[in-house]
Amino acid sequence: MLITAPFGRLMTAMVTPFTADGSIDWDGVAGLAHHLAEHGHDAIAVNGTTGEAPTTKSSEKLEIIKVVKNAVGSRVKVLSGAGDNETSYTVEQAKRSADAGADGLLIVAPYYNKPPQAGIEAHFKAVAAATDLPIMMYDIPGRTGVEIESDTIMRLFELPNIVALKDAKGNLAATSDVIARSGIPVYSGDDILNLPFLSIGAVGFVSVCGHTVGSELKAMLEAWFAGDTARALEIHQKLIPVFKGTFRTQGAILTKAAMNLMGLPGGTTRLPLVDATPAQIATLREDLIAGGVQLG
Known about the structure:
Blueprint: E1 10-13, H1 26-37, E2 43-46, H2 58-72, E3 77-81, H3 87-100, E4 104-108, H4 117-130, E5 135-139, H5 141-144, H6 150-156, E6 162-167, H7 172-182, E7 186-188, H8 194-199, E8 204-207, H9 210-225, H10 229-246, H11 251-261, H12 278-290
Parallel strand pairs: 1-2, 1-8, 2-3, 3-4, 4-5, 5-6, 6-7, 7-8
Helix pairs in contact: 1-2, 2-3, 3-4, 4-6, 6-7, 9-10, 10-12, 11-12
């Protein structure tokens, strides 16, 4: 079964660079988007967890879409996170994101309030009915407190503009079954599992490590889909230090530190995230070098 990748194969969830006073570094946003577009990406996801969406204002989110779109032009698609634990807000943010120029939406399952599957399904249906943009569902129960169960995924995939799933559930058996039963395009949402996800039928990645090793991830994808599984495995194993190192603490923290080490605009974080310590940065440097990353 050949499954089409609706947003291309390589996407990265982009960080949002902040200045020392906590404001957004708009030149940095544009610069990072350009960096990703030049290093193998088919799409960029903004306003997600890695972009520190919980601490950015709605108006900032919309401006991020506009700045990134302006920076990348037609080179890559721009998806925007618009999910919330309030359905009405999610619907309105989805509409505003479309007006701001997003090419698609990344919608996470409602978090914290732990709705039943009927509520999750109704939530996604309400968003899908409010916009014509293609939607990627995002299943990450470790953050939301609730999973999107397999039967719910399959029913939602019947809607015309729900076109893909970002899977960060870590349950390869369940995901394998959903792919086999429905043919839904699945994107790995956990870098260390990128290659295993391909082996069960995933179409690509929504990465964090694409900030640092985007070209290598693209090469892994090209090798896999060309049938060169040995080469794909070789790349995966080379990148393990980067995968592990990026998540020794919260991913946005160390990704920003990595960008700064590479001479790119990572900037600072917003509370309750805190910037990497000197010791964490020193370890990260070792991890990146071990994975072949060229530092500034």
